[in-house]
């Protein structure tokens, strides 16, 4: 099963980075292939969210459960697809203090579920997902660090 992992360091404190990472509904502003994220249900430390994307013009959608865990020096958001177009999609966001700043990490495992085509589709889907999440983290970094030093904000275009 393919694994995608991306990581970015931030000059801002972990709790500000965590708040941005946890704001799923704003992700389409930063990831062009992601068309919509809607929170369907919200609890004290969890959400059920619906995601819609277009990958190479092909619509892709899923509903996931997201669970928040905050700790003294960081936090995690663990997610797992409940239903959707992929056979399996799960992983986590991890945000933690690191030196004078913080770091954010996205990690997921996925399975497309088309056994005959998986050998060709998994590498392409993994690359697209890695590029999208790296672009998201770069744009969140700009947002967090601009807030820290009071400068204006400019978002980078996604590589997709």
Automatic annotation (TrEMBL):
Pfam families the UniProt entry points to: Polyketide_cyc
Domain Coenzyme Q-binding protein COQ10 START: 13-131
Top-level lineage group: Bacteria
InterPro entries per the UniProt record, alphabetical: COQ10_START, START-like_dom_sf
Protein name: Cyclase/dehydrase
